[in-house]
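A note from the maintainers: we've had questions about how concatenated examples are separated. There is no special marker in the raw files; a new sequence line simply starts the next protein. For clarity in this README we add a label.
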Amino acid sequence: MDKKNIKYYDAFSESYEVERHKGYHKMLDDLETQIVYKYLKESSNVLELGCGTGLILQRVKDRCKNSFGIDISLGMLKKAKPKKLNKILQGDLTALPYKDDTFDLLYSFKVLAHVKEMKKAFSEFDRVLSKDGVMILEFYNKSSIRYLVKMLKSPTNTSKEFDDEAILTRYDSKNELKKLIGNDFHIEAIRGVRIFTVVAQLYKIPIISNIIDFLERKLCDSFLGNFGGFLILIIKRKN
């Protein structure tokens, strides 16, 4: 396991949920959860890759047969425990502790950009995914306003010990992501999140926040989604 990532997220866990239930972060979580609901079935065995404090897994668990979560940070998982998430454990996405063909649905948000050995991780996703399973994977988009802002802005503190540049953060293009998933899979659909939100602070401004929120939710599945700061890929095996 990446010890630096563990320390970073253990520290971040103390404040992670402070702003998660309103404004900008609520928009992100809503659009991510809604896309999971679209591909979720009552008979599904589901795994969240990088479940954090369990905010999304909590919303998913009652809509499927079995829900599992894995995260590198024990600090995050301790925050998830009170949410009655029984099948969560600490682990590395490059060495998943599950049998082959276990899950009908895999999903991951705000995590994969920080995984160094992404090809190795994707190979593990392939291994544990059932034959007709679906992956819903989110990546940071190189072709976005968010990427430009990130290159220009100063680091933001995520805890007393770390800022958001303390760990690896990778931004990918669509072509790079196509190479990552290889020839055995195809991208069925893309949802773009944070298309119009130049900076998250805009959500603190009355009226403007309402307009941006409406646009983000209305156009996330349009062509403009290709330019979202976050790209959610719906990935399936080729027939």
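[label: protein 2]
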Amino acid sequence: MTIDAHQHFWHFDPVRDAWITEGSMSVIRRDFLPSDLSPILQQNGIDGCIAVQADQSEMETHFLLELAAQYDFIKGVVGWVDLKADNLSERLDYYTLFPKLKGFRHILQGEKPEFMLQPRFTEGVRLLGQKGFTYDILVFPKHLKAVKVFLKKCENQPFVIDHLAKPYIKRGLIKEWAKDIRSIAKHENVSCKISGMVTEADWQNWKESDFTPYLDTILEAFGTDRVMYGSDWPVCLVAASYEKQFSIVKNYIKKLSDTEGDKIMGDNAARFYKTA
């Protein structure tokens, strides 16, 4: 099964979604729903997707769960819950009633690195694993040293790094990011999504070779058992069509065996998010 392990849906709200600015991001200042994505997945031979939260509210979690209940191709949801809440255990017990809710995410890239090291936050993340949920780590390279400490506090929690931790592809910076990524990959409970790359490159002038050293680093560090493809649709549209961003990964994995390619293109995501 081929799975897009990272994409979003939303009813566009100019206040809530203020991060989607006018001008260069105008192409995504509108609604994006399953009826928009379904034909794209079919055209590209993709069987299903994982819908990931874009807003930090439980309303967002329920919005995605409602869509997942209506569309079979949505294989799982990564929602949001207040991981520092006093009633977190009860909230997670409630969410276990929804089989398609696979995990949670907090937008750590918008927080200071030390945010994730707060005892209440790490206690909340540890509770996720106890309740059977995954956690998506969304950070910038500046957060990675804190991530290394964070991982040691949550050793049994299933983690996946979103978007390769957003390396500075446009500026061609790789050395420090690669060092931190290799250290993080030593934790066998951590996987990585090769997603969101085009938006970290020069939106108008990127070329496939720009991504090769970053993909090489991820594959070397995590191996083919802990890497999964994701589109970051519709955010990717500011820099590439679905087909163009997909071709970066498809062309890159041609050097791998069919079995290894199948793992990256869906088998690993199905195992991590328990969609099978």
